[in-house]
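Recap from last week: sequence in, structure out.
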Amino acid sequence: MTFKEKFAVIKRGILMIEEMDKGRTARISAGKLLHAAQSFLHIYIVSNIIDLVVSARPWRDILVFMAVTTVAELAIFIVIQTIDRRTESHLFRYKASMRRIIWRKIIDMDFVHIEDPDTHIKHQRAQQGFARMQRFIYNFLDCGVGLVSIIAGIIIIAPLAFRTASGLDGFAGFVSSAWGLLAAAVSVALIEIIRGIYNSKRGYKPLLKVNNDRAILQYGRTAHHYLEDIIRNYRNGKDVRVYGEQELITNEYERNVRDRLNGWKKGLLGIYESNAVIGLLLMTSSLILYGFAAARVVTGILTVGEIVSFVMYFSRIRQGISAITNGFGSMLIDTEFVQYVYDFVDIPDEKYKGTIPTEKRDDDEYEFEFKHVWFRYPKSEQFVLKDVNLKWRIGEKMALVGKNGCGKSTLIKLLCRLYDPTEGEITLNGIDIKKYSYEDYMALFSVVFQDSELFSFSIAENVAADTDYEVEQVKDCVIRAGLGERLSQMENGIETCLYKQFDERGVEISGGEAQKLCLARAIYKSAPFIILDEPTASLDPISEHDIYTKFNGIVGTKTAVYISHRLSSCRFCDEITVMEDGGIAERGSHEELLAKGGVYMALWEAQAEYYKDTAGDLYA
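Predicted structure tokens:
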């Protein structure tokens, strides 16, 4: 990364911090400047008290001086505490804004990125980058306060520094001269600059190497998975106990932690080596400073109080130089980490969102068509869909069947524009769906995926997918989905919270009940196109058939696509489309497909053995 690029990262980072917490820069600036002023005042108080005592001044003068300076120091302290508390109180806002940027990016980005492992790596790095970003302001202001400290220190120390003694020659004369002061000042300044440059060039390189190690990042992601997705998800407790998986989880977690620590140890070893060099330079700088000050005391140039103030002011100047070199060097290093933030938030939305509004048709006359559609997932060479040609109109009930992995769910993902075709096009009323407004187009669909999720919100919020909802409509949808009896048993009705993560009165629901709530959510949206993507795969054939037929009555004139690997559940559909190896193998009614004696009949006969005591009775 060039210096110009690093400067651009720094500038953007400071602006982003200010956007996340307006006024943060001003508050931290005021606090740092007052801290510097407090340290200078402290030096002034200590040195003058020493001189007042040594010169045997009256105690009244000493007490008056102490009272005045103490009041001044107390006033500065109160202001500093007020600013620091306000800054700390806003830290939650800053962190909340930071998290909001991350999760808004996750829920808004193109779905194609969500399933990309590189996105997960960028997400993890972005979190590290945000942790570094909040140091930007501190490092940036350290440079400014360091410069102020240098200027103030030089102005204050000048009368003492340029005081000379007459009649001295040799080394004593050199130390007491302006040239001696210049030599000491230049030596200390050069050492501090070298220390800062070395720290920025070498001190953080091992850390950067660790943070760029994909294996170590993967160890971190895996350990997080064990903590968040397995251990802290209390619904996993049954399986853990029944199968005695405690040791499995513990051993896997500890192995990942151990591997991650081993990687970090290598990086930290490099940092320790750099710290040794930095410590040696600091010690050399201190020896020059204190040696020069001691020599001036020996020659009688400075009083006891003056030598204390000289050393302390000189130390402040040295610290100012160190603050500039370290602050600037740290900013340059942190740019490498903060760039991770931009790598994540700048993931482009490549999907063309379109501008044409979809027709709001009272007659629901919509026609979808797949035209020679081919599709393969990103970074894969294998096509999942191959030359798919398919058409259906609103009002039709279509089943999409086939073996697992034949491309059924992928076809639905393309229809819902979660992905775009690799080749070919999908049209709505003759227009490529890419040209429609993305939000308008998505409003046409209600989908119940096989892995649909419900959240620890109220039943009403889950069904309406919103905090603002029609109470009676929610109740009606829940009842129509087959959960009326269960709902009547809940004390708080549709306001009942699902699960117990956030509400001890929350209810646990079965897998079948969860699927019915997902169906209620699809009903509530009242979209003209409804898709059930194997949402009942975990249920027995009779239960699945009951849900499908019940939902078929709810759908009415809307288009419904039922995806299932159980052929018996979809016999009521107007048309059955059979997929095989990524393509359309057959289309027709149940009777027509059996008469053909092709793929569908082979699948039907293969499943007939399992259905003869269940689904066979339904269709006898």
